[in-house]
Design a protein that fits this description.
The structure holds 2 protein chains of 2 kinds.
Chain A (H helix, E strand, L loop, with lengths): L3 E5 L2 E5 L2 E7 L2 E3 L3 E5 L6 H8 L10 E3 L2 E2 L4 H5 L2 E4 L11 H12 L4 H9 L15 H13 L5 E5 L7 H16 L4 E6 L2 H7 L2 E6 L2 E7 H7 L3 E6 L2 H10 L3 E3 L6 E4 L3 H13 L4 E7 L3 H10 L2 H5 L1
Chain B lengths: L1 H17 L4 H27 L6 H36 L2 H4 L6 H37 L11 H14 L1 H13 L4 H16 L13 H4 L13 H23 L4
Helix pairs in contact in B: 1-5, 2-3, 2-5, 3-5, 3-7, 3-8, 5-6, 6-10, 7-10
The chains are: A alpha/beta, B mainly alpha.
Organism (chain A): Larkinella rosea
Protein name (chain A): ATP-binding cassette domain-containing protein
Family (chain A): Belongs to the ABC transporter superfamily.
């Protein structure tokens, strides 16, 4: 078994001379659930399209399951299940016929259709035309199409789009089971940071085509400094004072200030600074940042990581 | 054998995708339209069209073959090609198609075979319906003399020559339909070129248009000796070259 199911080497891409990906070096460990995070337009879908060969990539830039993606296209695609952006379905066909189209390409047993329909709980609606499906049902059918053929690697672009909280939970549990019990590698791009926090073993954060972070969840938490939230009688003055003193302010809105701190003595220093300048403090609260905090820190202040 | 297996699977996919769409209906309606028009003209105005002791099949078959090849066949091909490709374009399923473990050529060839097969079906229907219409005229209007004569072989050869000489046009429209996601663009292009060809048919330059080759084969005559079979060969050669060129152009493009 190869250590990495996905490897990219200095992968760059430009649309009409406009660079959208810069020197991307991804390493997705086999058997991991790899969360691929980034704001809209950061290059996530472009990366996925490059991985799947929908966009031509430079030779030797992409290796999937240890094989060069350009020279082993069919062999690689036979081991990948993918859902790219919104599920692309034939609306005039039933859910079962949509799966049959995929089955014919993958040459798998007909029983697998029933199995994946059951996995995404669409057995009862399989004969219905897809045009009558709700957004959530379409999404689940798209996931069923990706699962058909028992692929080694799943590449899912926003798989929980349009699902209700129960549906999101089901998909999360399904992906965790596929990874933990069946050894599948799951590469998921998502905006749902909370979901990623609950299921991803590894993460990559992409912003404006640059890879800002890549590693395990634990490595990510280790990188992140605690955050201090403040409420004062004059936030604007406090913000200016803290900035002048060299503190790194995070986006906390107008109601409260959030500051990255290195240790507890720094909290005392901030307290003294504001009080000495006549700013009253109503609340001081230190907490470990969530993935969401970290995501916004990295994507709004990409240099932060480099400074650590 | 592996190549044949890929093609068979791709073809089975295309057949399934075409299920419940309008492509088969269009393949039936186009020949029905041209034969019904010729039949109605014969039925209502046959006394003027057909002379005593002259084979009425000559004029009747000419109406059908010229009507078909000059207008209906090119316009039908443009619409049918756009419809075949609309299955993927409208559902935005190209990304799914090309992320499946199937060679790009098998996707291209199976779609081209489906389109050509539908057009072959239409030509068979033109022949069958024309024969049926003539037989019915013989029953309903015996004074025209349809029951006394026949023109099976000429009509069959005419339909076959039309199909083969139209292959170039089919390959061109096929490429346009696959390349452009808009239904209007390839269909509109085909319609415009057809009408331009019909208007400028007498000009020597019009012979370069693949959309006119099916009608130019007949050389304004129902006598097979007068037919210009060169257009059949040119049509087949263009089909081959445009088919290969179209595939190379499509295979190099990124998938939207």
């Amino acid at each position: 078994m190869v250590p990495f199911s996905i490897e990219t080497h200095h992968l760059s891409h430009a649309f009409h001379n406009r660079p959208v990906l810069h020197d991307l070096n991804l390493q997705v460990p086999t058997g991991s659930i790899f969360g691929f995070l980034g704001p809209n337009g950061s290059g996530k879908t472009t990366t996925i399209r490059l991985l799947l060969g929908l966009i031509r990539s430079p030779s030797t830039a992409i290796r999937l399951m240890g094989k060069d993606s350009r020279t082993h296209r069919l062999e690689i695609l036979s081991r990948i299940g993918a859902l790219i952006e919104s599920p692309a379905l034939y609306n005039h066909l039933s859910g079962r016929d949509n799966l049959e189209v995929i089955r014919l390409a993958r040459q798998v047993d007909q029983k697998q259709i029933d199995r994946v329909l059951g996995m995404v709980q669409l057995t009862g609606d399989a004969q219905q035309k897809v045009r009558a499906y709700s957004l959530g049902m379409r999404q689940r059918l798209g996931i069923a199409m990706a699962l058909l053929g028992d692929p080694h690697l799943l590449i899912l672009d926003e798989p929980t789009n349009g699902l209700d909280p129960a549906g999101i939970r089901e998909i999360r549990e399904l992906l965790i089971e596929l990874s933990q019990r069946h050894g599948k590698t799951v590469f998921v791009s998502s905006h749902l940071l909370g979901e990623m926090e609950k299921m991803a073993t590894h993460l990559a954060i992409l912003n404006e085509g640059h890879l800002l972070f890549q590693g395990t969840m634990a490595q990510l938490q280790h990188l992140q400094l605690p955050v201090l939230s403040l409420e004062t009688d004059h936030n604007a003055t406090a913000r200016a004072l803290l900035q002048r003193a060299g503190y790194q302010l995070l986006d906390g809105g107008t109601e409260q200030l959030t500051v990255s701190v290195k240790d507890r003595p720094q909290i005392g220093a901030i307290n003294r600074l504001l009080l000495d300048q006549g700013v009253s403090i109503y609340k001081l609260h230190m907490h470990q940042p969530t993935l969401e905090d970290l995501f916004f820190t990295l994507t709004s202040h990409p240099k932060t990581l480099e400074n650590r | 054998m592996k190549q044949l297996d890929y093609f068979t699977r791709s073809f089975a996919q295309e057949r399934l995708k075409a299920k419940g769409t309008q492509v088969v209906w269009l393949a039936i309606l186009a020949p029905v339209f041209v034969v019904v028009v010729a039949f109605m003209a014969s039925y209502l105005d046959g006394n003027r069209l057909y002379q005593h002791n002259v084979n009425p099949w000559l004029a009747y078959s000419t109406h059908i073959l010229i009507g078909w090849t000059l207008f209906v066949f090119p316009i039908y091909t443009s619409l049918q090609s756009a419809l075949v490709h609309a299955i993927e374009h409208q559902s935005q399923t190209w990304k799914t198609v090309y992320s499946l473990p199937m060679p790009k050529w098998s996707v291209y060839v199976s779609k081209l075979v489906v389109l050509t097969g539908l057009i072959l079906l239409s030509h068979l229907l033109v022949f069958g319906l024309a024969e049926g219409g003539g037989w019915l005229l013989g029953m309903l209007k015996p004074q025209y003399g349809f029951q006394l004569f026949s023109l099976h072989r000429v009509l069959a050869e005419g339909c076959f020559a039309s199909l083969l000489s139209g292959l170039g046009m089919i390959a061109v429209q096929f490429y346009l339909g696959m390349r452009f996601s808009s239904f209007i663009l390839p269909a509109g292009f085909g319609l415009m070129v057809t009408l331009t060809g019909a208007i400028s048919r007498s000009l020597p330059i019009s012979r370069a248009s693949p959309y006119l080759w099916p009608v130019l084969v007949f050389n304004s005559s129902i006598q097979t000796d007068d037919w210009q079979y060169t257009y059949v060969w040119i049509g087949m050669l263009t089909f081959l070259l445009a088919g290969i060129g179209g595939f190379l152009a499509i295979a190099r493009r990124d998938v939207a």
